[in-house]
Amino acid sequence: MKLTLLFFLGTTLLQLILLNRYFFALLGSSHKSRLHTNVHYLLSGMIIYLSSISFFPVLITGLLSLSSAFIISWCYSARIESKAFFSILYVILGFVAEILSYGFISQLKLAPVVTDLSNQETRLLILLLSSLFYFLFIVLIKMFKRQCDYKLTKWHYIVLALIHVISLLILNTLFFYAKESNMYILSVIGVLLINVTIIYLFDELIESFQIKDELNQLHKQNEYQNTSYQKISNSFQMTKRIIHDTNKHLVYIRACIQTGVQEKALNHISKTLKEMGNSYFTIATGNLVIDALLNNAISISNEKNIQFKHQVSLDIIDAIDSYDLCIVIGNILDNAIEAAQLLPAPESRFISIRIFTHNHMLTIHAKNPYIPNNKKRSQKNVELHGVGLLNIRHITEKYGGHLTTTAGEMFETIVVLPID
């Protein structure tokens, strides 16, 4: 008796290993602490052992198996809907493995009393053989699972859950009412293939949703980028208009001086200087994109009480398309301004950006303070921030460069682009 209980302890450890491999194949590596993981595996192991040594009704056994899998799923980073979905799938695959094991043992007469499932030796043999089948299922899943997780609509999760429930009902009917026919094994294999296919379709559905969302966000980003270009264009138009009207201003000032109304001349000079100051480029590197975007950012920062520090040292960077450069620098500056302006204390708001070339590389290093998970940040801005970083990454990959972001006390963004 004691030896049998030890064997059940061994099968419990084996099932925990299979659970670990199962969720690893579906959700990737666990990022939880060792203590967190050990506690969850201990709780799950106790449930599995209790279910193994006791003869419960099918419903209770299924719920215990579901709870053990769901406990282990919390060791992995995924949406709760996905954890529930894969936990139910674990129960289905386990049921399929046990039915196949039962059929295999019955055909080969490996146990003296196969029909007596309350017999511990019979159950132990079924558990061992079903573990082998389950290992084969995991290998099958790992062949095409891409380890991605993305939010679907609630109706998709409901439909997938219904497929699982129907599968369980079919398996229950096949096992208890169709064992007299050997064809039930083929039906069980059919249910297995349906549920394995569901994993593949789940991945395809997630990928289509992800692509659709990215396209929508890219569309928003393009609209936003066009708006930024319009602002820059307006700034240039204002500068051109002031330069064009300079002669007229000088003629009027000369007339004021000649007629002895110096006060009018001084007022007009002050007004003209103010207009020119609002549109004049304080940064003039010779690169139109960098000059326009940095000066526009300085103007916005002054309005929002943000201290703007900049250091620019450039060689020729004609190898980088102006449109691509606009996306990279524009998004970096917009993200920095949007984060800095949300700080409650004006004296703590600042942006530091360095743009320089060295060893045939263009480096853009931006740094700004930020408040993580700031509730004042609108959902629209959060989406644009994420899409902005995505667009920057696309540009860096296009040129064979790299993007690095660091979120500590400060948010830092480093972009390096080859210019050779």
TrEMBL record:
Taxonomically, the superkingdom here is Bacteria
Q: Which residues form the Sensor histidine kinase NatK-like C-terminal domain?
A: 323-409
Tell me where the transmembrane regions lie: 43-72, 84-105, 125-144, 156-177, 183-202
Report the Pfam families cross-referenced here. Answer: HATPase_c_5
Molecular function per GO = identical protein binding
**Which keywords belong to this entry?**
Membrane, Transmembrane, Transmembrane helix
InterPro entries from the UniProt entry? HATPase_C_sf, NatK-like_C
Please give the PANTHER family that the UniProt record associates with this protein: TWO-COMPONENT SENSOR HISTIDINE KINASE (PTHR40448:SF1)
| Name of the featured protein | GHKL domain-containing protein
